Amino acid sequence: MIRIVPREEYCIGCRLCEIHCIVQHSKSKNIIKAFKRERRPVKRVEVEEHGHVSFALQCRHCEEAPCITACLSGAMQRDRASGAVVHDPERCVGCWTCILVCPYGAIRRDGEERRVVGKCDLCPDLEVPACVANCPNEALVLVEE
Ligand code: SF4
Ligand code: SF4
Fold first, then answer.
1. What number is the average pLDDT over the span 78-87?
2. Terminal CA-to-CA distance of the chain, rounded, Å?
3. Is the minimum distance from the CB of 26 to ligand 2 under 6 angstroms?
4. Binning pLDDT at 50, 70 and 90, where does residue 144 land?
5. DSSP string of 40-102, one letter each residue
6. Phi then psi for 66, rounded to 5 degrees?
C-alpha cells in the first residue's frame, strides 16, 4: 500500500501541491484553462498553516477506513489493485457522512454541479502523484507500507 506522507519540517507553505493537484484533476490538465476557463476541480490536498509551521494534508488511505464503513451508497471503496481508498462520484449522493467521520478532514465538498465529495486518488494516471512530483522542497514523500 502506497501513502503520501507530509514532512512539515520541509514544507515552506508555497501551496504548489494544491495547484498541481487541481491541474492534474482538471479536464484539460492545463494550468491556465484549469484556473480561468473550466470548472475548477475540488482540491484533494490542502496546506494547513499555523505560524511558521505548515504541512500538506490529504487522505491517509486508512487500513480500516471509516469513510468506507460510513458511506451509505457504496461510493467510497477500496481499490483492490492499489489498496487506495477511492471515491466514485457517480454513486455519491452528497450526504457528507464521510466528511463527518474522516478523522483527518481529508474529504472536501464539491458542490459545483451536484453535491458530491472529492478526495485524494493517488493520481492513478501518473507514476508519481502530482503533489509529490511537484513539491519543490520534498515535503511530500511516497512511502510503501
Ligand atoms: S478519507 Fe479520511 S477516513 Fe477515508 S481513508 Fe482517507 S483519511 Fe481515512
Ligand atoms: S496525490 Fe494527486 S490527488 Fe492526491 S493530493 Fe496529490 S495531487 Fe492531489
1. 92
2. 5
3. no
4. confident
5. PPPPS-EEEEETTEEEEE-----SS-HHHHH-SSS-EEE-TTT--EEE-TTT-----HHHHH-
6. -60, -30
When pLDDT is cut at 50, 70 and 90, the band that residue 113 belongs to is low
Q: What is the pLDDT of residue 93?
A: 92
To test the pocket of ligand 2, the residue of 1, 16, 79, 122 to mutate (highest count of ligand atoms within 8 Å of its CB) is 122
- Ligand 1 atom having least distance to the Cα of 85: 5
Residue with cell 487506495: 84
Q: Could you identify the atom of ligand 2 that is nearest to the CA of residue 126? A: 2
Name the residue of 18, 19, 20, 21 to mutate for ligand 2: max ligand atoms within 8 A of Cβ.
Answer: 21
pLDDT at 22: 96
- Give the model's pLDDT for residue 115: 79
